Amino acid sequence: MKKMNILFILLPAVLLIVFLVACGGPLTVGDGIKLEQISDFYYTVSTSTNPPFFQRYRVVTEDGVHTFYHEKREGDHWPLTENDVTISGRKELSPDEWTQFCKCIEGGTVTERKEETSTGGSGPWLYIYWDGDKGTKQVFAFRDLDAQYDFRKFCEDMTAASVPQ
Q: Quick one: 17 exposed, middle or buried, by C-beta within 10 A (0-12, 13-18, 19+)?
């Protein structure tokens, strides 16, 4: 009888611990975050060197339409602002291009945002948002360097095919 009482006490405690650990860990794109749930993806590289530089790639889904945006800022001062945009454009993604984008980010992990206390760096900074996003886990990391390379190649191709803004 005592064994049963201990079991009834320990089992819920163990299940609670497993649940809390599972919820606190990273999410995986394609599993914990379904590809069709993705609403926004940012990839930004920025430096405050002389001359300063800023490059952002963004993929947005609105009303079922997937759009690629890019923006480059250059100047002789820091921080660079929207007035320093030298090149920008957009392109609606075809179904094949959306699939190509998804292959790049699938298997990547998403972790909690933490307050940045360093003086910065060049990045890249990657953020992902999705339907059901609770606003805590948004920092994206590619599954490996090949996936990141494929993503950057994808961005180069989409930039070349984009309509200037």
A: exposed
